[in-house]
Design brief:
3 helices; 68% helix
């Protein structure tokens, strides 16, 4: 539903009396215009490579737990005989 131009003018007049207009510094406006026209290049961080130490330690733990479980299963099998 569109409002009549007179209602909108009254609304704009009310806003103009309630809000004080802002005059930004010309230096700020110029620096903003320059930054918008020529933005600085963005550098993205490269995803870190997984350190070899973590892989070695994780692999060692996996092998150790696997050997422990295999030996325990073998012990249970041979004790039953």
């Amino acid at each position: 539903m569109m409002q009549s131009p007179m209602v909108m003018d009254g609304f704009e007049n009310n806003l103009a009396t309630l809000l004080k207009p802002v005059e930004p510094s010309p230096i700020f406006v110029e620096s903003l215009a320059v930054r918008l026209r020529k933005p600085k290049p963005i550098q993205l961080e490269k995803a870190g490579k997984t350190p070899i130490l973590v892989i070695v330690v994780g692999g060692g733990l996996l092998i150790g737990v696997s050997l422990y479980l295999i030996l325990r299963m073998m012990r249970l099998i041979f004790q039953k005989r």
